Amino acid sequence: MFQFKETQTYILKGSIVALLLSVMFLPADVFAQKKSQKIGYVESEKIIAQMPEAKKAEAKLKTITEKWDAEFNQLKKDYEASIADYERKKATMTSSAKSKKESEILQKQRIIQEFQAKKLSRGGEYDQKQAELLKPIRKKVLTTIQKVAKKYGYSMILEKGGLAGVVLYGDKKDDLTFKVLDELK
Q1: E strand intervals along 124-179
Q2: Which of 98, 113, 136, 173 matches a 20 to 30 Å C-alpha distance to 156?
Q3: Are 152 and 176 in contact (CB under 8 A)?
Q4: What does residue 175 show for φ and ψ, rounded to 5 degrees?
Q5: Span 25-68, pLDDT tens digits
Q6: Closest among 147, 143, 153 to 38, alpha carbons compared
Q7: Which domain holds residue 45?
Q8: Model's pTM, two decimal places?
């Protein structure tokens, strides 16, 4: 049994050495035979910013935020009025009336904070509405990018700019941004 295991180990080591030697002595052009890929890039945010659909979505978002601003300003005005009223009357108030008024003011402050968090925090209503409005636009841009890539023989398109940009440098001849914009028009 011992000799069998030793023989297996010897054969395994020999196979590994033979494999490594064969890879080392292969001609370098064997590795370079892979078909070269054509890689381009786009600035999708620039494309989206110039689309009429995006301008309409931006106008809708602006209308929504203006409504929220009005609501927020009313809440803030009410809160500030409560504080001013409390400051004027606190000298003549009983301790229980002061406590009640302070609780009301704190409640109004919490309502303002919750309003801001609900509407504007990460993942809040603003982000959700923006994603909802931009989803069909982004899909249209992606479809057009794929169409342009196939048309001009590109095997890969990268994103340049924006938050998720992955291209640190790109030759202008590989920039497909304007070709995508032309295709969209």
Answers
A1: 156-159
A2: 136
A3: yes
A4: -85, 115
A5: 445 444 444 567 888 889 888 899 999 999 999 999 999 999 99
A6: 153
A7: 39-184
A8: 0.63
